Amino acid sequence: MSATGSRSPSELRCRRSWGEPLRTPSGTAYLVERSALGGVESWPRTGVGLRHDHRFFELVDETIRQDFEYWYLILEGPDRIPRGVQPLFVHPQDLLGGMDGPLYSAMGRLRRRLPGLLTLRTLMVGSPVGEGSLGSVGEDPGAYARALADALPPAARRLRAPLVVLKEFPAELRPALQVFRDRGYSRIPSMPYVALDLDFRDFDEHMTRSLSGSVRKDLRRKFRDAAAGPPILMQVTDDISGRVDELYPLYLQVYERSTLRFERVTPDYLARLGRELPERARFFVWTREGRPVAFNACMLHDGVLWAEYLGLDYGCALDLHLYFVVTRDEINWCCRNGVRRYCSTSLNYDPKQHLRFRLLPLDLYVRHANPWVNALLARAVPWLTPARHDATLRRFPNADAL
Q1: How far apart are CA 161 and CA 244, in angstroms?
Q2: Tell me, what's the pLDDT at 347?
Q3: Using one digit for the tens of pLDDT, what is the confidence trace for 54-68?
Q4: Structure pTM?
Q5: Which residues pair with 69 in a beta bridge?
């Protein structure tokens, strides 16, 4: 559909497959699968200006299945002009997934008798991979958010999902998303990303200028240990499709050690990422005596490098302090190539806090369809988020932003 409201022949043909519309106070919405987006002219503009655009959503849809059902919400105004396409997915959400301690243990014993207890079919706004974004096309984010808030309840009913969650939306969208709080959604902190502004020449200068004496001493010892044996060599490429079989097991080693898991990327995802987003995908691979010992799947966009999926060989990773070698080498690469900021996804906060990263807060917006259940949920969900129980987060200078 064009911005003037006229429809291309391909979109007119495509519309016949969209099914029954969802009528809302803001206009009309259509809940469709990805195959129905081929003729929607606003779809290729989804995510323009962000590191995750429509190509990325299509890649995730095709390569990371797990127990995710992928859907897309086409939003139109009363004048039938498109507002945008919002990626969604349905997932059976464990409400206790972020808990720990005695209460979690007690609930675990109860769930051995009732396996489905506190696991709800949930409609999630966003993607299983990465933070959420608004799929508006050249429109005021607040107006788009209102249209989305109108369309989500009927969409959730159609998908038989009593719980709706906006997944990991950046804190800068809080003004636009205030409409969700006005409509009974609870906003709670998700596990944040972190960022380091690269206002220095290299990692050594960062250590000298910004890190404490004890941290500098510890890092130098780690780097001496790593350099004592055969050299650890780094290669940077935009395509690892020919090496996925040897690198993917390193990712699985890190994934299996994590206490909090959600999506698990696949070999196909990693192989296609570089082919389908070559200007953004960057893979860093470290080898020792010709054998890969670490790799990191990253995205480069708008002067920012995002470190997203780490792989380590734990047969040597701890002895060689590979996590710190990876961080140092990637930051040095960024400094040499004019990258202004280095960002990392959630978890493993202790070393990031010592390295003077700052938090990039992410929010969850949660609402149950039943008003009585939603009132109880509003009291309970602040205690269910793992961000509340991570003591390391409180040591970051901007922890109050969560």
Answers
A1: 36
A2: 84
A3: 999 999 999 998 889
A4: 0.90
A5: 90
For 120, residues 6+ apart whose C-beta sits below 8 A from its C-beta are 92, 93, 95, 161, 162, 163
**Does 9-192+362-401 match 194-359 in CATH topology?**
yes
Convert the pLDDT of each residue in 183-218 to its tens digit: 999 999 999 999 999 999 999 999 999 999 999 999
CATH classification for the domain delimited by 9-192+362-401, as one of 3.40.630.30, 3.50.50.60, 3.40.47.10, 3.40.50.1370: 3.40.630.30
Q: C-alpha dihedral over 61, 65, 68, 70, to 10 degrees?
A: 20
For 22, the token pair is: 């969802």
DSSP per-residue letters across 61-105: HHH--TT-EEEEEEEE-TTS-EEEEEEEEEEEEETTTT--SHHHH
Please check whether residue 335 is in contact with residue 201, taking contact to mean a CB–CB distance below 8 angstroms: yes
Longest alpha-carbon distance in the chain: 68
Reading the block at residue 133, the tokens are 């974004």
Q: Where are the domains of the chain?
A: 9-192+362-401, 194-359
* pLDDT over 60 at 327, yes or no: yes
pLDDT digits (tens, 9 = 90+) for 16-26: 567 788 989 98
Q: Considering the domain 194-359 in this protein, what is its CATH number?
A: 3.40.630.30
